[in-house]
Amino acid sequence: MSRKKTKSDALYLSDRQPLTTAKLISLVISYILLIFWAFVILWPLAQIVMSS
C-alpha cells in the first residue's frame, strides 16, 4: 500500500527547531513583559512632554 506524504511526514529542512507549546508561552510572556517595560519607561516621559 502506498501512502501519500503529508506535510507532517515531510522532511524538516529548517535549521531552527519547531516551536513547542512551552516556547510559545514563554515567547508571549516575554513580549508582554517587554511591552509593559516600554510603557513604564515611556509613560513618565510622555507626562513630562505633555506638561511642558
Overall mean pLDDT score?
87
Global geometry: rod-shaped
Query: Radius of gyration, rounded?
Result: 22 Å
How many angstroms does the end-to-end distance come to?
A: 77 Å
Number of strands: 0
Explain how this protein is built.
The structure is a single chain. With 52 residues, this protein is mainly alpha-helical. Helices cover 60% and strands 0% of the residues. It has one helix at residues 21-51. The radius of gyration is 22 Å and the shape is rod-shaped. The model has no long low-confidence stretch (mean pLDDT 87).
What's the short story on this structure?
This protein is mainly alpha-helical and 52 residues long.
Features:
60% helix, single chain, rod-shaped, 1 helix, mainly alpha, 52 residues
